[in-house]
Structures are given as structure tokens and as C-alpha cells.
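The protein record quoted for completeness.
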Amino acid sequence: MVHHFFCEIPAVMVLSCSDRHNSELVLVYVGSFNIFFAPLVICISYTFIFITIFKMHSSAEYGKAVSTYASHFTAVSIFYGTVIFMYLLPSSSHSMDTDPIASVFYTMIIPMLNPLVYSLQNKEVKSAFTTIFQVAKWPVVLYF
């Protein structure tokens, strides 16, 4: 029985009856390359975006660009943080209780956050949220 939501490599490797040392080394090497190469490309593109944002002259454009940049950077950071937690920790420090939680984060929570974050940049959605918080008398101001 796999103590997981779906059959990921670390969860299936726990069930292996053979020596897992070589398999874990391959997983760490391949995972390290994939997990660090993609964020490197993303960081390079973020650098170009950041340079372009600083060249903007309009404060409205600047604010909207920084808002989009920050929300996307946060989502990408959470995604890669949980992926690194899942795939690059040694098997001795893995807990079968925390792995399913981490996998839910990078397979379900992050993809659900993207539409929410980008819809909060819409003025009508922002005003609806502000109205809801004011009716509930919560002191919340949306800075998106």
C-alpha cells in the first residue's frame, strides 16, 4: 500500500525490496539538474523583467508590473520550495506524513493560486473583496 495520494518516485522507492542507494543517487542527480536548471532560466528572465520594470516612467505601470512580478515570484518560489523538499531531501529525513502534504502543495495549491492571484489584479474583483471584508468588518486593505 502506498502511503501517498499518487505514486511518486520517492513514495514508490520506499516500497522497493532492493537496495535503493543507486536509485536514490540517480533521483538526486536528475532531480537536482531539473530543479535547479529551470529556476535558473526563470531567474534570468526575472532579471530582464526587473530591469524593464525599473525603466518604466509611469507609476501606475510600475505598480501593476511590480504587483504581477511579486505574485508570480511568490508562486514560483512556493512551488520550487516544495519540489525541492520532496525530491532533494535524503530518504532518512523523509517522513511519510509530510510528503503527501508537500505533494498537495505543488500539485494542487499552487495551480489554484495562479488564477486567484491574477484575478485579484482585476478592479471589479478587488472591489468585491473589499466590499465583502467591509461587510464582515475585517480591517483588510488589498494592495494589488
Remarks:
- The mean pLDDT is 75.
